[in-house]
Write a sequence for this structure.
């Protein structure tokens, strides 16, 4: 029986059910090129198994090559319902589950995609640790999200975070602190994308 820690935050679950119909209006356009840039690191030498952990409404799906087998996981049924039509001809299995307690055995995937999920979940360290657990040795994790830098003050973001973390997203996540939960992962690249470097594209590899 999985712990499903997201269930301890019913407001977050309810808010994303409410946001599902309008989520794309605010996210799709501004983030499309950044998502595409992140996927430039997706392996293309041979077919593999790719987990999209926190697929949301499926905005990533039209940007993916059809050579891989995909598993698209999200904790919200309303989000998954909107993601399914975007699969097109991709080989995708949709799974209702928790990014902080993945319902998969160890070392199952060649690549794990974490787009705009580490700053949403209540426990980002646990989310990254779970991604590392289900990743095969030699596999990669593709991250795209907003992160503060160590010792960055960002007073306004931290102030808004008191409210937004409860129903939408966190604004105080420091990537370097999150990485401590999976010390074996190696940083391959870390590229600022939008928001003056607030949003970053990061590639990690599991030895």
């Amino acid at each position: 029986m999985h712990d499903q820690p997201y269930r301890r935050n019913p407001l977050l679950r309810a808010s994303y059910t409410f946001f599902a119909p309008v989520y794309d209006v605010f996210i799709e356009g501004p983030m499309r090129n950044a998502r595409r840039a992140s996927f430039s690191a997706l392996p293309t030498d041979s077919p593999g198994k790719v987990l999209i952990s926190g697929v949301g409404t499926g905005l990533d799906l039209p940007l993916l090559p059809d050579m891989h087998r995909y598993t698209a996981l999200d904790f919200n049924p309303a989000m998954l319902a909107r993601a399914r039509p975007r699969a097109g001809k991709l080989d995708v299995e949709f799974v209702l589950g928790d990014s902080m307690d993945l319902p998969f055995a160890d070392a199952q995937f060649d690549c794990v995609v974490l787009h705009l999920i580490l700053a949403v979940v209540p426990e980002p360290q646990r989310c990254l640790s779970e991604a590392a657990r289900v990743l095969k040795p030699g596999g990669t994790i593709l991250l795209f999200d907003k992160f503060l830098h160590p010792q960055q003050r960002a007073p306004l973001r931290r102030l808004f975070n008191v409210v937004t973390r409860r129903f939408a997203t966190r604004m105080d996540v420091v990537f370097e602190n999150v990485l401590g939960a999976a010390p074996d992962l190696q940083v391959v690249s870390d590229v600022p994308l939008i928001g003056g470097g607030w949003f970053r594209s990061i590639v990690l590899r599991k030895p």
The radius of gyration is 16 Å. Helices lie at 10-19, 23-39, 77-83, 124-134, 155-167, 175-179. The CA atoms of residues 75 and 98 lie 5 Å apart. Confidence is low (pLDDT under 50) at residues 160-164.
